[in-house]
Design brief:
Blueprint (H helix, E strand, L loop, with lengths): L2 E7 L1 H18 L5 E7 L3 H9 L5 E11 L5 E9 L9 E9 L3 H11 L5 E9 L12 E5 L5 E2 L15 E6 L1
Parallel strand pairs: 2-3, 2-5, 5-6, 6-7
Antiparallel strand pairs: 1-9, 3-4, 8-9
Bound molecules: inosinic acid and magnesium ion.
Magnesium ion binds next to β5.
């Protein structure tokens, strides 16, 4: 099976939007600091680009959860593969995710993080597919709402490929 990738959001469009998100976050956290939690692996490109555009002090930690297998279907099973290194107690936490699809992963993750008593807990996602929502999730910062298409690039993969594309593309299977 081969696949074709069509550009959905250009590198310029994504960069511009990340700058806007960085500006909003910097304003909202003015006088404070923000502890970014990158959801691996997909969130890593977005987290780094976003962090560079935040002007308040930033600290970062990484977490890995499984939600999808190697294909385009949700397993519905969420498991912590790698937990945070540091406590988030009394920190202003901002979870940074690549995409919210069914919402199952984030709903589980946010409940889990909330139980660790952060001072505040917010969510930033580069992409959101609202049509696909199964579990309600409150999103504080959204890069782009996109249609129900399987996308790759900027950290998002199809069978572990294409994470390094500097734009968001739609996968079309032949
Ligand atoms: P959810 O639990 O269904 O919201 O799934 C979220 C996770 O599924 C994301 O963090 C991605 O890893 C993966 N995912 C969902 N949609 C896509 C997509 O269009 N392309 C690549 N990965 C996706
Ligand atoms: Mg992800």
């Amino acid at each position: 099976m081969s696949e074709k990738i069509h550009v959905l959001l250009s590198e310029e469009a994504v960069d511009k939007r990340i700058q806007e998100l960085g500006d909003s976050i910097s304003q909202d956290y003015a006088g404070s600091q923000v502890h970014l939690i990158c959801v691996l692996k997909g969130g890593v490109f977005f987290t780094c680009e976003l962090a560079k555009r935040i002007t308040v002090p930033v600290s970062m930690d990484f977490m890995s959860v499984s939600s999808y297998g190697d294909d385009t279907k949700s397993s519905g099973v969420v498991k912590i593969i790698k937990d945070l290194d540091d406590s988030i107690e009394n920190k202003d936490v901002l979870v940074v995710e690549d995409i919210i699809d069914s919402g199952r992963t984030l709903s589980y993750l946010l409940d889990n993080l909330r139980s660790r008593n952060p001072r505040s807990l917010k969510l930033c996602t580069l992409l959101d597919k609202p049509e696909r929502r199964v579990t309600e999730v409150k999103v504080d910062y959204t890069g782009f709402e996109i249609p129900d298409k399987f996308v790759v690039g900027y950290g998002l993969d199809f069978r572990q490929q294409y994470r390094n594309l500097p734009y968001i593309g739609v996968v079309e299977l032949d």
